[in-house]
Amino acid sequence: MFIDFSIKDLIDILLVAYLLYQTYRLMKDSGSINIFIGILVFIGIWLIVSQVLEMKLLGSIFDKLVSVGVLALIILFQDDIRRFLVTLGSHKQLGRFFRFLTGNKQEKTEKADIMPIVLACMSMSKGKVGALIVIEKAVPLNDIIRTGEIINANVNQRLIENIFFKNSPLHDGAMIIRHKRIEAAGCILPVSHDLNIPKELGLRHRAAMGVSQETDALAIIVSEETGGISVAYKGQFHLRLTAEELERILTKED
User: Fold this and answer.
1) What does DSSP say about strands 131-135 and 174-178: parallel, antiparallel, or unpaired?
2) Are residues 144 and 236 in the same domain?
3) Mean pLDDT for each 10-residue chunk of the chain (254 residues)?
4) How far apart, in whole angstroms, are the C-alpha atoms of residue 250 and residue 137?
5) What pTM did the predictor assign?
6) Burial class for 173, CB neighbours closer than 10 Å (0-12, 13-18, 19+)
7) How many domains does the chain have?
């Protein structure tokens, strides 16, 4: 007796395996790996009860639990699901494909575009002036921009330093740079509650991590306590950066 196995079945298995792997990574990053294992165990029991043992009453109860459980999981992990979709949508190859369909061209980051930012960060680092600069990429930051004051000015070293000067009314918030222009300042960012963030890192670092987890934006932090320069991007920190390292990260193509 031959098993009826086609290419379509192979693709089906590979897609399910990929989906399970991405779900595992999502749960692992959010510290919910035990929930993921529990879900797999529950699904296994449900399949055995309904498909193998064909217990109608218990199977129907499990069916109801699964239908309700999916909605509960979506509500419980809405932030993690949003992060996964953002990561998927900002993927390099997918981004190029959709830009090709829509006719939009990606703006290439030149050295001249980021040098005012690098020089301003180095100057503020020497004076231990706290700063938080967010550079928008594919995901629009309209909701965050609305929380601050619209600037709409060219990226300028002096302007950046003046905005984050300690007596400035906008120095506590984040600056948003969009399309090579300073769009807004004094903006409020979502704060990350990730327990893996080192204790010595302050609120600016947590806000930078929060926006890097929820969007594909790149956030630059200048520490008011140490003067250290850091970058949060794609949910990862790059700490204690030199001017050359910061320049390389900002000009690196995704």
Assistant:
1) parallel
2) yes
3) 70 83 67 70 79 78 75 70 62 51 55 89 95 92 93 94 91 93 95 84 92 90 94 91 93 67
4) 11
5) 0.67
6) buried
7) 2
